Protein 1
Amino acid sequence: MDRQDKGLDEWIVGGHRFSSRLLMGTGKFQDAETMVGAVLASGTQIVTVALRRVGRIPQEDDMLGPLGELKGITLMPNTSGARNAAEAIRAARLGRELCGSPFVKVEIHPNPHHLMPDPIETFEAARVLAAEGFVVMPYMPADPVLAKRLEDVGCASLMPLGSAIGSGRGLATAEMLRLILRDARIPVIVDAGLRSPSEAAAALEMGCDAVLVNSAVAASGNPIAMAAAFAQAVGAGRNAHRAGLMPQGGGTALATSPLTTFLSVEGA
Amino acid sequence: MRARWKTERVFFSEEMDVNLIVNGEAYEAKQSESVTALLEEMGIGDRPVVVVLNDEVLPASSRGTCGLRDGDRVELFRLVGGG
C-alpha cells in the first residue's frame, strides 16, 4: 500500500494534498445559502460543479458565486451532459478555463434512464485529458479491469459508483469495490448512490480513500446537518480502517465475559 | 485564434447590426465592437463565463480587443451546481 497512511492522515491526488475525505457535489440544493452551509459543515476540500450554456434570461441565479469566496476549496468541474469522449474533452477544457483548476471529473453517461458511465468513452476521454496534464478523476463502473486500465493511462484517482446516480441504493457494488481496492495504486473514491452516513462509513472502513456525495445531502431533510453527519461518518470509517477491524468469527460465538464463574464463589 | 482589431472593422458603421449565432440561436448584436460589449449587451457583464468564438476558447484578456463579424458563432458557458 503506498497510500498516505502516516502523520496527518492526508491523502494525495494528482500531487495535491487533502485532509478531508468527503467530496461534495453542488447540485439539487434549494438555494445558494443552504449549499454553502452544507459545504462548510461537511469540511470538504473538493467540490464538484457543472458547466452549462448561459441562458437568454440574464438574471439567472448565481448559485456558485459564494463558493468562490470560500478558502481552501478546490473546484472540480465535471463533464456531465457529455455523451462521448470528444464532448467530455471539450467540457473539461472549458471547465479548466472557468475554474482555473486542473481537476476534472470525467463523467459520460449517455443513457438518461440509468446514467451508467460509458466505460469506452470514459477511458478515451481520461487518456487524452491525463496526457494534457489534467488531474483526471473518472466516474466509472465498479469494474476492476477498467480501473487498472484507467490507472495505466494516468488517472489521478478512480471514482467507481456505489449504485446509480441519485438512487440512494448505497454500496450495491461492494464486492467489486473490494476487488478495485485490492489492486489500486491511486486513491479510490466512491462516487454516486450513497444515501446514508453509515454507507459512507462502510466505504471508508473497506479501505476507500474518500466518498463523493451530493443527493444524499442536498435532498435530505436538513442538508447542513446531514453534511455534518457525513463528515463524522467518513471520519469514523477512516479511523476504523486505520485501526483494523477485529477478525470475523466463523459462525461460532466467542464470549467477551468469563462465563464459568458466575455462580461459583471466586477463589473457592 | 483570430484577433480582429477595431481598426479592421471600420467597414461596420455604428448603425449596422452584426448577425451572430449565440449559443446556437441567431442574435442581432446592436453594439459589438468587442466581445466585452456583447456580454454587456446580453446582461452578462463581468459575471464569470467562458467565451468560445468559432470553436476556440477566447482568453478573458482578449475580450476587450476581439471584435465580432457577421456569421461568428459565439458560445457562452458558466458554472452551475452539479455532482
Protein 2
Amino acid sequence: MFGIVGYGCYIPRFRIRTSEIARVWGKDGADIVDSLGVHEKAVADADEDTITMAVEAGRAALARATIDPQHVNALFVGSESHPYAVKPSGTVVAEALGLSRNLFLADLEFACKAGTAALQNAYALVKAGEAKYGMAIGSDTAQGRPGDALEYTAASGAAAFVVGPNPIATIEGMYSYTTDTSDFWRREGEKYPRHGHRFTGEPAYFAHVGNAARGLMEKLGLKPADFDLVVFHMPNAKFPVRAYKQFGFEKEKWLPGLVVTHIGNTYSGSSILGLCGLLDVAKPGQRILLTSYGSGAGGDALSFVVTDRIDAARNRAALVQDMIGKKQYIDYGTYVKLRGKLSRS
Amino acid sequence: MTDVAVVGVGQTKFGELWERSLRQLGTEAFNAALTDAGIDRNAIQALYVGNMAAGYMSSQEHLAALFADHCGLAPKPAVRCEAACASGSLALRQAWLSIKAGVYDVVAVLGAEKMTDVTSSAAITGLMAAGDAEWEGAIGLTFAGLYALMARAHMHAFGTTREQMALVSVNNHKNGVKNPYAQFKKEISVEDVLNAGMIAEPLGLLDCSPLTDGAACVILASDRVAKRFERPAWILGSGQGSASLSLAERASLVEMPSTKAAAADVWKQTGWSNKNVDVLEVHDCFSINEIVALEDLGFCAKGDGGKFVERGAIKLSGEIPTNTAGGLKAIGHPVGASGVRQVIDICRQLRGDAPNQLSGVKRGLCLNVGGVGGTAIVTALGVERQ
Amino acid sequence: MTHLSVPSFWRLNKAKYGLVGAKCAGCGKLMFPPRTVCPGCGGSKFEPAALADSGQILTWTVIHAAPEGFDAPYAVALVRLEDGVVVPGQVVGDLTNLGIGATVRAVFRRLNENKDGLLLYGFKFVLSA
C-alpha cells in the first residue's frame, strides 16, 4: 500500500488585512470580508519565493517521514509563480533537500491544482515501482492585480508530501476531470492574471470540483457519508463552503481544513495546505476527500485513509494552525514593496 | 648585514581628486619623492607598487609596468604587491627585503589608489574583495560590517563604549588640522561622531575612514648609499603576519593574530619594547581598529584600549602620540597608499618637519592592516642606524 | 546583484543550501566552509558533514551602507552553531530580540541575484521565539 509518508507546510509570517487593502482602494473592508470570508492573507518576505517555501515545506515533510532523503527518486513542484520561465524550481529544491541524483523531476503548472497534480504524479511513479519514494510540493507567491478583487485573496504558502510505502495515510484512489474552460489565465511575460467574473463560478470551480469529486466517489463506490474529513480548493471561503453544502458535508468535517480565512488563497498550495490541516487532527481509520481546482480548468480528487502511523509523525514538524498563528501585520506600502509591485527599476 | 633607510618621501594631496587619474597621482608622488631625495630617476634600480583595487575601480591591472613606464623607469624591473589595505606596506616590505638581500641599493616604493570614480556602493563592493568573497561578500557583509562585528564583540567582552571609539576619530581629526595633505582639516566632537548616520551598527559615518584618492612614495637605500643623504630614517625592523580572511574562522573576534605575529617579529629584530616607541601610526580604517591595534601592539592590555584612549594616552601630549598627522580618518585612506603614507609621517617626525612635531623623537612604529586582519605589517623606524 | 559567477556559486551549492561543511578524516575537526587542507592537522581527506541548524549569536551588526545588489538595512551575525562551528549569515524576520547570545535557526532564503540574472539561494537565520 502506498500513500503519504510525511507531510509539511510553510506559511510566511507577514499578514495584510482585508480591511487594510480595502482602505487603500476606498472600499468597505467589512463588506469584503463578508463576501469573501477572508480576513487576512499571508505575504512572503522579499527574500522568499516559490523555491524557498518549497524547501521549507519539503524539510518539514521529510522530518515527518523520517526517511533518508537520498531514497527519494521523484520530485514534482507545482506552482504558477515559478521564479524562472525556464529552469525548474525543482532542481534547487532537490539539491537543498539532499534528494537522490537518480531523480525523476519536473516542474508542473496547472493554475491552483499544480500541487495535487504533483501528488498524483509522485504517487503514480511510486505505485508503478519506478521510485522508492516520491515528493510532491505545491508552492506559490500568487499575485493579484492592484485594486482587483483577487488582491484580497492572492497569497503565499506551500505544502509538501513524501509518498511511499508504509504510509501515515494511504491513497485509496484518484480521479481527475479536465475541460478547456478559460476562467483565469496569464500570458507569458505578463505580471498579473486576468479572470472572468461570474464565469469563474458555476462553469469553472463548481463544475470541475463537483465532477472530480463525484467521479472519484463513483470509481471507488463511495458516498459523501463515507468521508470523515474533506477539503476542496479555497479561492475564498464562500466557494468551498457552498460546495461542501451541496455534497451534504457537515461543518466539523471541513472546518479544520478551511485555512483560507486567515491566510488567503495560496494557489498551488491551497487545497494541500488544507489537507495538512486535516492530517494535523485526523485519527487512524478516518477517510479524507481532497478535491483541488485549477483554472483552465480541472479538478483532481484523491481519497486518503489515515493509518495508525499518523500519531507518531504529527509532532515532528509544525502544525498548520501554529504556522497560521505566527504572524506580523504589515501595511499596504510594505506589502507592495515586498511583493515587487513597486518597481525600483 | 645590509641596513636600509628611507632617503626620500613624497605624496599627493589626499581627497576626492576629480582632475587626477591613478597614473597622474602615482607619478606626482614619485616625482615629489625624487625631489625630496635630491636624486635623479636613473638612480632607481627597481620599483615596488602597492595598490589593491585598480582592476575593479579603473579596469587597470599590470600596474607595475604601467608606473615603471609613466615614472620614466622602464626598462627597470617593477613589482606590484597586493594585500588589501596593507598593499602599501607590503610593497615597502618587499622592497626592504630586496635591499637587505643585497640585490639592489636604491629602490622606489609607490602606493597609489583611485577610489572616487565609481559610486560609493560600487566602491563598497570592490573593497569587500579584501574579505571572503564567497562567504562574507556573498551575504552582503561590507568592510564596515566586519569591523562593526568586531566592535560589538569588543564592547560586549570589555565594556568598550561608542564614546571611547569616538575619541579616536576626534583625536585624528584634531591632528589633521595642520596637515596640508589631509582630506579633512576640521575638528570634530564626540557628539558629532555619536550623532552621525549609521554605516554598520554601531559604527557611524565618523567612525569610518573615507573613500579617498591619493599616492605616496618613498625612496629606500642601502646603508652603503644612504650615508650620502642628510636625514636618513632607518628601517630597523619589518614584520608581517597573516590570518584567515573570514572573521568567522578566527579563534578570537577581539584581536588580530596577524598583528601580534608581525609585532613579535619586530620587537625581536629591534630589541625594543613598547616603552621605546616615541611615535605611532596605526591603521584606523575604523575607530575600533585603533583601539584593537593599541592592545595587539602591547601598548595596553587586551580589553583596556577604550580606557587607554579615554585617558588621553594617544594625544600629542600623551604617553604614545598616535596618528599625529591625522590617521586614515582625517588624512584619508587611499587603500594602497596608506601604508607608505604612514611611513612618511613617521619619517617626518624623525626628521623634525612633521605638522605636529613632537620633541625628541628617535623611534617610530607603523601598523598597516589588510582587510580585517588577514594581513598585518609592522615597520619600525629610527633616527639611529641601531 | 553580485559579481560571483554562476560556476563559482554552483561549486558551493551543497554548503550554501544545506550548511554542509566538512569533517577531517584525520583529526575529526569540523569546518565550514569545506577546505582542501585541514587547518587542524594539515590532512587532506574529508567527509561531508551536515552542520547543526541552530546556534547562538556571537556578534551582530545592521548594515546601512550596502554593496551593490543588497537593500539596506539588513542584519548580519556571526553564529556559533550547536556543533561549535561559527558561520556568518544574515538574520531576517522579527529582529526584536536580536542580540549577543540570542538563539537562531537556519532557514532557506533567496540570497541575491547574480549579474547575469541567476537567482542565488542559501541559508539565513531567524531568531527562535
